[in-house]
Write a structure and sequence with these properties.
This protein is of the alpha+beta class. The protein has helices at about 5-25, 40-55, 85, 110-125, 195-210, and strands spanning about 30, 35-40, 65-70, 75-80, 95, 100-105, 135-140, 145-150, 155-165, 170-175, 180, 195, 220-230, 240-250, 255-260, 265-270. Helix 1 (about 5-25) packs across helix 2 and helix 2 (about 40-55) runs parallel beside helix 5. The longest helix has 23 residues, at about 5-25.
Length: about 270
């Protein structure tokens, strides 16, 4: 056997041993230098192969983040407990953390331009700054829809959203929103442990493969941002924490959210 074949065999064996440790130990931990974690090419390619072989789910190489900075937790405040929300004067219905209300307007019809103008004004009155969200307009049978997504810098807050529906002379909003005091992302110090996205990707693929109806075939999206969690998971409160999170989505609409620091599954959405 030639040396090149032996070397190739040893490389493959080393990668497979690493992947075995991923499966058996529940994930790997990356120790950051300068709060940055990196994945090497062999680990990424081997992970793709293992997921395809074991769960028959495809993962695009370019979809997997190879380099991430470890984010710190950020304190947030539930919008329904803020002064702006309490004093705005709308007839608002609140259930747990979610709210909804309708506003009568003078517009007989809406397009993206006039809808955005009114929406930005409403959000401003609620104390929601334009730098803290992105807008995504779409249409359905009922009319114009806008989804408002929360963010810190360019990092999404996955469970921070408001949906606005525009009809003749009215706007209806519902959702859940957390305000942040921080305007900038905070990065963790060097030496912080962070679970690899590989661990979450394998676990999400395993869970997706167990769904027999409308079976997932492709990992369609991998994102990195925040997920808001209450300090007491059984009670809605004014204060909560936005924790660093991986979001993994399949082509059949399943979404999995993982705590970056410990690798735990935070939520699964069907």
């Amino acid at each position: 056997m030639s040396w090149n074949k032996i070397k190739t065999f040893l490389i493959i064996l080393f990668v497979l041993i690493n992947l075995y440790l991923i499966f058996s130990a529940g994930g790997i931990e990356l120790f950051f230098s300068g709060s940055t974690g990196k994945l090497d090419e062999d680990t990424v390619n081997s992970t793709i192969s293992v997921i395809k072989k074991n769960y028959d789910i495809k993962v695009d190489y370019n979809l997997i983040p190879k380099k991430l900075r470890c984010l710190n937790n950020i304190d947030v405040t539930n919008l329904i407990y803020t002064d702006n929300f309490e004093k705005i004067g709308y007839d608002i219905s609140v259930q747990d953390s979610e709210f909804d209300f309708s506003i009568n307007t003078d517009a007989y019809s809406y397009n993206e331009e006039n809808a955005k103008k009114e929406l930005v004004d409403i959000l401003s009155r609620l104390g929601i700054e334009s730098s803290s969200y992105n807008l995504a307009f779409s249409k359905n049978d009922s009319g114009l829809i806008c989804r408002i997504y929360g963010k810190i810098d360019n990092y999404p807050i996955f469970n921070n959203y408001i949906e606005a529906s525009f009809t003749s002379r009215s706007i209806t909003l519902y959702g859940i929103w957390y305000k942040t005091e921080s305007k900038k992302t905070e990065f963790a110090n060097s030496g912080i442990k962070m679970k690899s996205v590989v661990n979450s990707l394998i676990d999400a693929s395993r869970r997706a493969s167990l769904v027999k109806e409308n079976k997932a075939k492709i990992i369609s999206n991998i994102d990195y941002g925040y997920f808001v969690s209450y300090y007491d998971e059984n009670a809605v409160s004014k204060s909560a924490s936005a924790i660093p999170c991986y979001m993994i989505e399949t082509d059949n609409g399943l979404k999995y959210y993982y705590d970056v620091l410990n690798g735990n599954l935070l939520k699964q959405e069907d």
